[in-house]
Amino acid sequence: MSTRFIDGPAEGKRLSLQRDPLFLRVVVDGRGKVDALDLLDDVADPSERIFVYRQFANHGRAFFCTRGKGCQLENMNSYALYHEQPADEVLRDNAKWAEWCQQQATEK
Questions:
Q1: Given this model, what pLDDT does residue 9 score?
Q2: What is the pTM of this model?
Q3: Which of 1, 22, 38, 96 could bridge 90 with an S-S bond, Cβ 3.0-4.6 Å?
Q4: pLDDT tens-digit profile of 26-73?
């Protein structure tokens, strides 16, 4: 697992993601399990809390191999909790989320 989180609710966690967007929604369930909504059609469960992280380092890609399981190409990124958390209605609606991301990327 190659994507790491340096602070916030996902601090110290590492996840294997298929995409490495600039802005990433991270979900935490009631038991504290952390996951990311990295795919374009991913949605959060109604009981999950959502937090926005921003990529601050992209170290490229690497192959990770496990004996008996083969190799997998993974992104090597670091994310930090973003200082501007949008409203929950934005985080839970993929179209609004995409619009918010575009707006943030062009303003910064």
A1: 97
A2: 0.86
A3: 96
A4: 999 999 999 999 999 999 999 999 999 999 977 766 777 778 878 876
Q: Are 12 and 87 in contact (CB under 8 A)?
A: no
pLDDT value at 1 more than 60: no
Give the angle subtended at the CA of 2 by the CAs of 9 and 41, to the nearest 5°. 70
Would you put residue 32 in left (φ > 0), alpha (ψ -120 to 50) or beta? left
Q: Is 77 helix (H, G, I), strand (E, B) or coil?
A: strand
- How does 29-47 read in b/e, with b if 16+ C-beta sit within 10 Å? eeeeebbbbbeeeeebeee
Of 59, 50, 60, nearest to 85 by C-alpha is 50
Q: Are 36 and 24 in contact (CB under 8 A)?
A: yes
86 touches 100 (CB < 8 A) = yes
Q: Does residue 96 contact residue 89 with C-beta atoms inside 8 Å?
A: yes
